[in-house]
Amino acid sequence: MVPSLVFGDQHWSRPELALLAERISRSLNALGVGEGDTVAVMLRNSPSYVATVIACKRAGVYLVSLNWHFKAGEVRFLLEDSGAQVLVVHEDLVEPIRAGVPAGVALLVAPLHEDAEGVATQEWPAPGQQGEPLPDSPRVPFNSVVYTSGTTGRPKGVRRLPVAPEARARVDAEAAQVAKTVYGTTPESVALLSAPMYHSATMSFASHACAVGATLVLEPGFDAERTLQLIEQHRVTHAYLVPTMYQRLLALPSQVRAKYDIRSLVQVSSTGSPCARGLKQRMIDWLGPVVTEAYGSSEAGYTTFITAGEWLAKPGSAGRALGSAQLAIVGEGGEELPPGEIGLIYVRQPAMPDFTYIGREEDRRGISRDGLVTLGDMGFIDEDGYLFICDRKSDMVISGGVNIYPAEIEACILAMDEVGDVAVFGIPDAEFGEALAAAVQLKPGRTLDAATIGQRLREKIANYKIPRTITFHDALPREDTGKIFKRLLREPYWAGADRRI
After folding, report:
1. Can you tell me where the transmembrane regions are (predicted)?
2. What does the pLDDT average to over 238-263?
3. How many whole angstroms separate alpha carbon 292 and alpha carbon 181?
4. Which of 29, 63, 93, 340 falls 20 to 30 Å from 285 in CA-CA distance?
């Protein structure tokens, strides 16, 4: 299926978007891409992004989404690690990252401004780049390679494994049912997405809208009042929002929120990051029972789901097992814990094919237990089967729905000659859920200020990875093993908060 698309003031019919997808498919084929190969995408939200997703999904081509804020070094790692053969990239992003494009990776350059008329006149992709369309017979049902955060300083590429032919129909049916529950979209739906498509959750939302042939209202970025305008104008039925967007919507004056008729909303999905209880309560009070939430990961997919009504009965819960998902809470000794006891959360979603970490089989084995996997979250299951997430065992920070791994940032700060030691961790933030903080220990006799650290980091990493709070310490607290005791650094910031992540 192909959706109809609204992008800004442009309206793309299904045939127009299908034509663009076919042209991109032909271009990828001409560049040597085939089923099972990998294509990277570094695009802003745009018709080209949606069409590239459709082209790759139809042909069973793995697609790697790159954050368009990334610098050359970050791009190089992802292209090399994923084995991408082609990078589809907006024209203004090419020069800043050109040094990071490995030899042998072809560029398919998309124009900044694109419209259905341009497709009809064959302006993009260029006619000389086109071959035959890629075959439409994929064996890979979930074709996104998602890079997920970890504690090693480098993200890990999650690649789905092919499904056995005899299991394909079952997996497809279960996956479609999971997506239908989490997102709710049908062919008659009007789905609004203004978060960047390079996030795994937003990519999943857009892909499901494409798969069912809904109308997708895609925005270049999020603006609170414009969101309300779009809901009223297009009679939006389904929307993907994250807690940061909740904050900005609720920050609008009450008279502004009251101006717009948003009663068309049927379901608001939030899956990207934890939501504070008070914030979610205010959204339900405003929007009513349409607010839903799902808990999942790039590795395991969505494993729990909760409606607004259930959440009001179980405040703070992430929901019950979704579909045939399995949940287990495991203690430090490896034993499965009874209801109410906090331990490490292990999950499995049979609707998702098994996965591997690209080139990191030991890491993949390390998170497994009896066919289930853990991503380091701590929590408990109550007597009614509802999951509550209490904390993260890992140091990963989720800011505005974006996973950030401190080890990479710490490595950049440690490379500064004045720095003797550093710890980067998450602290509460009213708008983004979490913000980054850095505790820095300078070498004896050296001086350095926070502004200089920030300036140097901007030359190396994306701006959203730069700590907002930088403090200086004579010595950082350490465990007996020598590891920095980050909990002691985090606790003062989280004191009094109604959540721990």
Report:
1. none
2. 93
3. 10
4. 340
